[in-house]
Amino acid sequence: VSSQLVDLQIFAAPRIILKPLVPTFPCFTNIVVSLMEKPHIDFGMRVLGGDIMSIPGLYQFVQETIKKQVASLYLWPQSLEIPVLDASTAAIKKPVGILHVKVVRALKLLKMDLLGSSDPYVKLSLSGERLSAKKTTIKKKNLNPEWNENFKLIVKDPQSQLLNLNVYDWDKVGGHDRLGTQVVPLKLLTPHETKEFTLDLLKSTSISDPQNKKHRGKIVLELTYAPFREDSDGFSGPLDGYGRKESGIDRGSSNEIPSGAGLLLVTVQGAEDVEGERHNNPYALILFRGETKKSKMIRRTRDPLWNEDFQFMLEEPPVSEKIHIEVMSKRTGIGFRSKESLGHVDISLADVVHNGRINQKYHLIDSKNGMIHVELRWKTI
């Protein structure tokens, strides 16, 4: 049976952001598109010569379903991010601080369950980040939940980023209903000063949504933005071959170990001459304190370029610890022994803590000629 889509019309109010700006043409790396209101999509559908959209009730049902699905994905602050430049060719913003979030409580939430209650929890994230959202615990059968739970989020641009807050009603079966949403621009915060917010929850962040007038409860937060300490961010020395460096920092001038919480930033630039016995589809694994992070896989190459950042938020400097980085290869098809190691390295973090930054190439252990290029930074709050 053949079908035909006819007379397609789309009416929408898009919000388009070109970011981040870089010196490489076309001067931005991503196009970020959001919708400021639910779109209207009009079309006809012909099946066996007849327009099935003329069936009573079907047209309105399809319209509302499309609006709901599209709005859940792309209605601001949700967005569609379209990459224009490869991250390896552009200057990507680095972390500049930590946002401390204390989710205190919510008040007078909507009743979503049949017994006149809700099971609320909060999801929070920063705009422009692909990291998974943080979540509070679930408070069963409570319209005035008390959480007093703390979270840390990595900030890259305090002037433009938003803290996205969504309160949900947990359901054992099916999707979780959203009770309300809000956003907080980070530019409202003064560094190192804790600020309390009591926010009215909204149906959506669209200004024109008439359902925002309905009372959906409040959420109480405490926010503190802690920028990293200013430092020279100096390079630990020019590379001299592979794995050797001439330090540009007079380490004898100070034996003081930086104290306090901070961020360990690991940038895996790439690898050279990595070769597997059965396949060459390399990716990098970063293991630290029981946590494992993974880069993208690049197919059919012995010289992969990843240029990917990985972050670890720590309560104290890792002066006596090592980080394990391993290059793996994975078979793209179905077969036995689908994974194999192409080499690994264990890097002491003492120099990173003392110097603030190290950028080196390391020989891979258990690899004939393999090298890996890693940049490590320690930022103290």
Automatic annotation (TrEMBL):
GO molecular function terms listed in the Swiss-Prot or TrEMBL record: DNA-directed DNA polymerase activity; lipid binding; metal ion binding
Residue ranges constituting the SMP-LTD domain according to the UniProt record: 1-85
Any one of the GO CC terms: membrane
Listed name of the protein: Putative synaptotagmin-3 isoform X2
Keywords from the UniProt entry: Calcium, Lipid transport, Lipid-binding, Membrane, Metal-binding, Nucleotidyltransferase, Repeat, Transferase, Transmembrane, Transmembrane helix, Transport
Regions that span the bilayer: none
Organism from which the protein derives: Davidia involucrata (Dove tree)
Matches recorded under Pfam families: C2
Subcellular localization(s) per the UniProt record: Membrane
Membrane topology: Single-pass membrane protein
C2 domain span: 76-199, 245-362
Family label: Belongs to the synaptotagmin family.
Keyword Transmembrane helix: yes
Top-level division of the source organism's lineage: Eukaryota
